């Protein structure tokens, strides 16, 4: 592979990551406009992009940056605190989720529509919302056990719906590129 091909591939990779980051921000902003991306019940459909990290590690960075930027731009968030806590949690728990669910990658049912790895990751990542519940408890004085269950349910629902969207896309587009 010559240097122009290598450069083209890295530029393509950067553009693909930037597109995912931008989509995360736009979808989060749209969900926030109908009061679903912030507050006691957070339904961030943009969390579906977390699954892209299973296909290519570049998307881990794209989703982390998209989440962090969304946490600053979307009204109702805690700004720089949310940038750090939310972005950091996203990076840490997607990374851990990828490692913990790796052996489940070949377990699918119903012609690939039900992916055990995606479901296990969804449970794991939804339970990681304790970081956001703690953040809200510390900075907004919201009771932890009031926020945590609703954050877990909202995150899990977002991921399960997103799972079907990403699986559908993966059947039509090579997401590993």
TrEMBL record:
The chain crosses the membrane at residues 14-38, 80-101, 113-140, 146-169. This is Queuosine transporter QueT. The keyword ATP-binding does not apply. The lineage of its organism: Bacteria, Bacillati, Bacillota, Bacilli, Lactobacillales. It comes from the Bacteria. Keywords: Membrane, Transmembrane, Transmembrane helix. The keyword Transmembrane helix applies.
